Amino acid sequence: MAVSLSSTGSARLLGALIRAGSLCSSSGSRGLHVTAVCCKNRAARIRVGKGDKPLTYEQALHPHHIGHRKGWLSQHTTTALLVQEARCHEEFTLFQFSNLKGEEGAAERTIEDVFIRKFMFGTFHGCLANEIVIKRRGNLLIVCALMLQQLPPMKFYFLIGYTESILSHFYKCPVKLEIQTLQEKAVYKYL
Questions:
Q1: pLDDT tier at 116 (50, 70, 90 boundaries)?
Q2: Per the CATH hierarchy, to which homologous superfamily does domain 74-190 belong?
Q3: β-pair type (175-182, 74-76)
């Protein structure tokens, strides 16, 4: 029974229920624990300031808007794994579709994504304008990023090729960087 404790009438009703024994446990001891309900998600929210702090689109939207107003920063397509099973002298071919939840190697993919983000941040230090989006399509790894034009074009192209070749050799799969350059960071709103 859900009872609000905000008014004195509710407190009297609760006291009557306790005296009547309907809130007693089977062991004979009486106990009632009342805590305030807090159903607000406060993680990853930007605090409101004086209106002089610039925010990007990713920072301006709250975490519960992921999938509605903004997308995920890591996208993994479902891969079909071919499994051969032999049951009762018959051979079955099964396709197992894998997602991150409950998939073997989900933790490894998450660690790989963290490593790629840190590697990109270190390689293009001070040039990232927004968050990095990582897409996995079968065996292909696509890294999308918005960069600021703070480096000469020749050095920028060298770093793109360097990053693609190092990550390709490290993960043993083709890696493609999709880079767009901006003059300055795009401000969505000020807080």
A1: very high
A2: Cation efflux protein, cytoplasmic domain (3.30.70.1350)
A3: unpaired
